[in-house]
């Protein structure tokens, strides 16, 4: 069993918490945590954050809000929870300071000790800044978790599509610069050509939806963002949580708010998913190309050149 240092252990804690490690690595992390108080505290802090995020996601999912409004509600709930904890901490600091601000000398002369007040103010400013940073980080973590780790699969695709599309439109560049040919080769596919449908390729990157790996190919049609996801057996397994029996080349449709989602499996047991603010005619035109041409066992689709 390989020994890992604290830095390496910390990098594995998130996967350890979500039971995503193999048996050997899980045992390595567990043995380290039994002996290392620092890493154990780190795990507890991460657990608290994870529980907070999952709780607010459950609360938001109980509503009938749109995906965007639901994401905003999640951020608001996270912010409120952090703010309440910060205020509780500030009250403890101020209470402690007030107890020490007045001192009585041996001659019963009351002396004011102003230093604790300045100390309390400094701590309050520091806590406020720390809270702001924490809220920003947790908001990003929450949105990313919401977009990549929650299911069921087709609902997760809708969230992920909106998340990645927002990044694409904002031109932030988080998922820019991936080697296109290498990713396509690794997935054993060529880039789908949809130009005849007025759908034009813009970018691609590896992505996770409901914790299943996909190759996410991003397209546009006018001002509409369109996502094409390609996944293998792990993606099919996630899909089968809702659709127990999958028929190759059969179209599975799902609507989430104003988004149309369509999934189709191939003879080779891979999964294609299309998502976008599209009409049924538009999404059928895209998926029919995949459906018709995946009937052949020798080629996935005529779209691949």
List the helices and strands and how they pair.
Elements lengths: L5 H12 L5 H13 L1 H25 L5 H34 L1 E3 L5 E3 L2 H34 L4 H18 L9 H7 L13 E10 L2 E10 L2 E8 L1 H7 L11 E6 L2 E7 L5 E6 L3 H14 L12
Antiparallel strand pairs: 1-2, 3-4, 4-5, 5-8, 6-7, 7-8
Describe it for me?
It is a single chain. By secondary structure, the protein is α+β, with helices and mostly antiparallel strands. It folds into two domains: 36-148, no CATH class; 176-293, TM1622-like (Protein Transport Mog1p, Chain A). It has nine helices and eight strands. The strands form two sheets. A six-stranded antiparallel beta sheet has the order 3-4-5-8-7-6. Strands 1-2 form a two-stranded antiparallel sheet. α5 (115-148) crosses α6 (153-170). It is globular and about 60 Å long.
Provide a brief overview of the structure.
The protein is an alpha+beta fold and 305 residues long. It has nine helices and eight strands.
| Unreliable residue runs | 101-106, 108-115, 293-305
Annotation field: number of helices: 9
Can you give the helix content as a percent range?
40-55%
Strand content: 15-25%
β-strand number: 8
Biggest sheet, spatial arrangement of strands: 3-4-5-8-7-6
Output the CATH homologous superfamily of the largest domain: TM1622-like
Radius of gyration: 26 Å
Count of individual domains: 2
Summarize the biggest pleated sheet.
6 strands, antiparallel
Query: Per CATH, what is the topology of the largest domain?
Result: Protein Transport Mog1p, Chain A
Tell me, what is the CATH class of the largest domain? Alpha Beta
- What integer is the average pLDDT? 77
Order of helices and strands: HHHHEEHHHEEEHEEEH
CATH architecture of the largest domain: 3-Layer(aba) Sandwich
**Overall spatial form:** globular
């Amino acid at each position: 069993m390989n020994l890992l240092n604290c830095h390496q252990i910390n990098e594995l804690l998130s996967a350890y918490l979500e039971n995503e490690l193999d048996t050997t690595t899980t045992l390595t992390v567990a043995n380290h945590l039994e002996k290392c108080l620092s890493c154990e505290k780190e795990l507890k802090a991460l657990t608290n954050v994870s529980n907070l995020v999952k709780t607010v996601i459950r609360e938001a999912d109980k509503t009938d809000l749109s995906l965007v409004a639901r994401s905003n509600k999640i951020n608001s709930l996270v912010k409120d929870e952090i703010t309440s904890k910060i205020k509780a901490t500030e009250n403890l600091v101020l209470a402690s300071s007030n107890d020490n601000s007045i001192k009585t000398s041996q001659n019963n002369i009351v002396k004011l000790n102003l230093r604790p007040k300045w100390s309390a103010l400094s701590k309050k400013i520091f806590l406020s800044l720390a809270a702001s940073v924490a809220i920003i980080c947790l908001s990003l973590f929450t949105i990313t978790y919401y977009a990549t780790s929650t299911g069921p699969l087709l609902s997760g695709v809708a969230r992920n599509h909106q998340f990645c599309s927002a990044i694409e439109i904002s031109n932030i560049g988080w998922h820019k610069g991936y080697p296109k040919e290498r990713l396509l080769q690794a997935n054993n596919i060529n880039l789908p050509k949809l130009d005849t449908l007025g759908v034009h390729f813009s970018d691609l990157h590896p992505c996770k939806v409901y914790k299943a790996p996909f190759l996410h190919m991003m397209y546009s049609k006018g001002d509409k963002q369109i996502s094409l996801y390609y996944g293998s057996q792990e993606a099919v397994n996630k899909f089968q949580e809702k659709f127990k029996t999958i028929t190759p080349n059969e179209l599975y449709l799902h609507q989430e708010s104003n988004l149309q989602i369509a999934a189709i499996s191939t003879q080779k047991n891979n999964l294609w998913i299309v998502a976008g603010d599209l009409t049924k005619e538009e999404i059928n035109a895209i998926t029919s190309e995949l459906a018709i041409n995946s009937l052949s066992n020798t080629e996935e689709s005529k779209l691949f050149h």
